[in-house]
Sequence to fold (1096 residues):
Amino acid sequence: MRELSYAEALRECLRQTMTADERVFMIGEDIGIYGGAFGVSAGLLAEFGKERIIDTPISEAGLAGACIGAALTGMRPVGEIQFMDFVALSMEQIVLQAAKIRFMFGGKATVPMVLRMPGGSGTGAAAQHSESLENWFVHVPGLKVVMPSNAYDAKGLLRAAIYDDNPVIFVEHKLLYRTKADVPEEPYEVPLGKSKIVREGSDLTIVATSIMVQRTLQAAEQLAQENIEVEIIDPRTIKPLDSAPIIDSVKKTGRALVVHEAVKMGGFGGEVVSQIVASEAFDYLEAPVRRLAGLDTPIPYNRTLEYHAVPQVENIVDEARKLVQGGY
Amino acid sequence: MAKAVIMPKFGFTQETADIIKWLVQPGTLVEAGDPIAEVTTDKVDMEVEAPATGILDGIRYQEGETVPVTAIIAYIRQPDEALPPPETEAPPAVAPAHPPAQPAGPDTVAVTPVAARVAAHKGVDVEQVVGSGPGGRITRGDVEAFVAQRDAGGSAKVRAAPAGRRRARELDVDVASVKGSGPRGRVQSWDVQAAHATKPAAVPTTEAGVAEVIPLVGMRRTIAQRMQASFQEAPHMTFSAEIDATAMQALRDRLHAGLSAEQPRVSMTAILLKACAWALRRNPRMNARLSEDRILVLSDVNVGIAVALEDGLIVPVVHHADAKGILELAAEVTAVSSRARAGKLRSQDLMGGTFTISNLGMFGVDSFTAIINPPETGILAVGRIVRRLVVMSDDDVAIRPMMTITLSADHRTVDGAIAAHFLNDLRSALEYPALMTM
Amino acid sequence: MTSKHSTQPDYQTYLQAWGQEKALALLKEMLVIRTFEEKAEELYALGKVHGTMHLSIGQEASAAGASLALRESDYLLNHHRGHGHCLAWGSDVNLMMAEFLGKETGYCRGRGGSMHIANVEANNLGANGIVGGGIPIAVGVGLSIKLRKTDQVVIVMFGDGAANEGAFHESLNMASIWKLPIIYYCENNQYAMSMAVKRAFNIERISQRACAYGIPGVTMDGNDLFAVYAAVSEAVERARAGNGPTLVEAETYRWRGHSKSDRQAYRTREEVKAWQKKDPIRHYARALGLDDAGMERYRAEASEIIDQAVAFAEASPEPSIDTILEGVYA
Fold:
């Protein structure tokens, strides 16, 4: 099968949906001739024109509002926030407007919009261009939050997000844009709210999101050489969370670890852990349920410090080994 | 019709406002919108405006008074109008944001959620538990006290993984008996598995010569633990006395003669109870318990009655036995005994005992010694009444109904002299019941 | 681009064009708005209303005049002091009152309340509890109209306070560069809660801000229905013709406090009384040749309509608790 990068897969989805559906358009900063800060929309301006690939001034509140207004009146906008950090400037429109318009209006309106935004560290972009803020949105009723970990899922999840009738926060990862996977050419959907068992194993369940799925897969290869078999689950959509496969897996392995890049304190991992221990899986636990996540710090600029601020493959290996071998 | 001036609601949560000042005197002409009173809420000072043009009249609240919002505080009337009669109308009913909780029916037992959960987990029928919470609601503490009475002791905290505990339940293995291989000795599921696999022919039916295996669980286990602890910790002294039961029987018969058919019979136990309570009052050191390095002499006399059950024994308590008459005690003994046999004891029935009577007379026992029911100081073991030849004080020989009672006392709290004094008082009370009225 | 203060229009020309029936209907509409709010105030004082409300008493001409300049197919984005706009948009007063009392039959099934009344089916995209919250959304509605190539326009209502929010700047700029069919309608009622316009702006008219975005700005007497209609009509015409947005400023005054817990320490009773002399309803009635006595029958009609609405709302069921999660997600 044909290999595409994560960025190419996203672009293919955008091209296919925009070609097939006039309601879909893109709006964001420097997405036109520039092609987007990470090149996702490269070439789309030439194909669809400036009417549908809309470059905005540096106006994050304005562009979020533009998505809401268009969605309310029959369109399916895909907004791009250049760096996830900048979504802080759009929060009023997302949280106080998009998320609750439907509810406030008694369920009589829909806001089918997608806000794409690249999060994550590892590029030396320092503290204001490297954040992982997904859990802000998890806490807001009315929003859905999607985090594709590979090119195949990226294409299929984006299509599902565009055709979902709710505002969807679509969190991409800067370091994943160039990673490749087999991606079918024809349009397809990866449904929202379905977890995926990425790797099967018997000793430990690891729930990982976004780039941490890739790091966990590498860790699992190393652990396999030590006869530790890791089962990896990628929720793909962190809100709504499909927790049943996670619980089933923990019942099988008796141990669980959650890995994400975002800061551990108040992070999404806490939610996963709490769903595990509150479930029937509790009675199958052989060890405490652990989290491996970002340190409680802004992302440092210095390469070494940046590397150590978030979980890396060796951290996952160590933590998994300790959990399985009775370190906790 | 005169227009009512109501105390307006200004804030989300406001329920009352205080009138600071009437800005307009009664009888004054005001225009709609004119401020007529200054009021204050917990938040701010506000003005109440005239709702219509007319004459302010019929002021109902004075300065400094607190007024519920929406209550009428005055009227605006037209010059030719009279005030409405000063009946006190209720403020409009505001629908509660949440429907009020359904009052518990007379048959339902109010239980807090956590108490219900603990009760379910411990296998406690909440109907047996007496609530101490608001409106008699059963709290977690009530259930725990009940459980503590029912089966005090229990195994010490065992470190075990949830999976270890689950496997132990499945294989019927006592997790406390398993050596853990996990961190800090935590019992893992495989430890339980291994313990189960290596259990030395533990399955009892295969044991030669054993007809039946009765697991030491529940009440049996509690009795075993408590009695063992008592016998090991409390140095028991025993004292016996032969009691002439003539007066007791006469008393019983006299009381029976005055009873209607429906009233419970007066048992010998009730008379014994009355006599013990009386003697305990006279010998307070027997009504005491040991608490670490102190002896606590107790103010209430609460006497427990050992009741035999099919497999076990329970000791319901008759509280303030010294303050009750024999008929009242008889009724209580009958009631608690039947509750005990029906398994319907309330937690208070089991709490606060200061002395115990164990009467095995009905089983044909002549005499026996009993083990103290901790933390009490004494227990009285009562044998059957049997007619015997007795040498009387005038050296005559007579046939008398005789009964042997044996007191066990904890030598840590009392010495032999005190116990003997108590036993003598008891004998006096049983042989000359009129003493108890003196 | 310029900003200007509009001149007083010729009332008679408009009245002749509308005819007596339409002219009277506008009077009735304003009376219904005022009566609705007076009743709202009364219900609140009686403790029948949960929460707070923001009354637009004294601003009725602004609501009625602006709506008059629009078509049914156009869009409305409203603000928290929006009962008047909603009624002028042709909303069912029964459903509004039911929403106000939090009933299942209300426009938003009792979920929205006074501050969030919407009727998306009728292109009323809702009132907003966030100051300036609707301003960026209007950009999206304008974009959508442009992409769908219809001749609709969108009017977004906001107050003087919202004009100092950052989103105002972003949105007016975007609307201008893309020539979106938007009427930015600022109801300057002189106070953002307690902050006086004189203290919050260092310019004479808020409409002067239009110059910064290269769009026209106009300020008119918001208590004069004719002036409001004239100014908004011009902005609508421009928008429909594809010439982009206009910033319209209506000078008006709220007679009541910001919300029910406002003790109004920031202004004098004399100032309020002076503005009350410029009652927009009475002003319009005079143009129709009606004195107070002549208005009385229309006032009575309005009271009857509102009383019926209250009866409808009070008889309506409360939302059922088991529907609490409905409407969170589509």
